[in-house]
Amino acid sequence: MSIIELGEVRDEPASMPPPRRPRAAGRPLRSTGVLLLTLLVLAGGAPVPRRAVTSVPTVPDASAYLTDDGVVVVDPTTPDGERYLTAYTLPSATGEQRVRRRWRVPLARSGDYLAVWAERGLLLAVGANTAEVLETTAFDVATGQRRWHHPGLVQWTVDGGLLLVDDADDAPGTVSRVAPDTGRVLWSVPVPPGSPDYHERDGRVDQVVVVQPTGELQVYDAGTGTLLRSVDTLPGDRSAFQRVQVVGDLVLLVPPGSTRLVAYSLPDIAPMWTSPVPLVAWLVACADLLCAGQQTGGLQAIDATTGGVRWAYPGPDMLADVRQDRMLMMGRDQRYAVRDAKSGQERTDLGQWGLVSRLRRDDDLIGIRSTVDGRLVVAELDLAAGRARTLDILPGVAGGCQAALPVLLCRRLDGSTALWRLHR
Fold first, then answer.
1. Is the pTM of this model over 0.90?
2. Which parts of the chain span the membrane according to its record (predicted)?
3. CATH topology (fold) of 276-350
């Protein structure tokens, strides 16, 4: 079903100052006045921008997932009835404003699906079974045919393959290479708790990094499973739990006690530096620095070459995203601010927003917030410009939104799901 709504699609314009008193009459001025009057009349007669809203067929409590060229709907758990996975096309930007069903396939009656996305001809669905074990099921994106089903989560490799990681926080696991079309396991490597992590090239995995309880740091080729290099990080006959994280071309270890951070270079695993940064919970690249989030809150920025601490921020705001040399920080009341990654200084306050889920990590940052009259403001959070630019103000929307601009998918107040095409 297609609905055309007429409504507010831009911020209210600022009030204009009163016009000046006209100067002495003359032919050039009279001609200009006629031209301006004509433009005003034409502008007043122009049609109001229309907002196209397309309903997506869903049953109550179903989950809808936006993909690059469609919407996938997962029915809720129904122990006594049928349950389906349904794929729809996106409405045309210029043609018919409705979704068309591509295919529909039955699903197991039990288990919860947590994420669904399409990539390289596969529709990958991650869910938890009745034993709360994470599993990945692959479907053909064009036909819905089920290709394979394995415990674990998947990562794409640089050569177009898939890594399947079946692990838990407190138990050993495995990293396996599987054939994308068939799910056939090509090789497997055992991994201890706290591992593995990955080195990426162009957004795809090319090396798998593992740290053993004995302290042996290992690097495997993601294509062949070959052990490329290893080094002992705990000299002597020692054994301890260490966490490993890869950021850029650095392997970072949090040793026992979590009182420091140790860096090694890739691919040779040569020691780089040790930094006195305690209680590190996670690390991420911030411009040309490393941002280390601490278990007690707060943030420290570390020189990636020397390990020196450039600046520290005690909190309580948390790092939500990084774009080039700008960091998006979220306060406890979901109030977002932009900070400079090189200095840690706050640049601007963007206000209170909820971040919308996006398909890719580099997609535009979209924020939403409700107005006093129950509408939903949708805005692009531009970190470089330091502003929130309103894209639309939608009536009757509850939230649960996903974005792949110019398309926005949200749940409405009546429980239904719909698509909007936003004007930037």
1. no
2. none
3. Thrombin, subunit H (2.40.10)
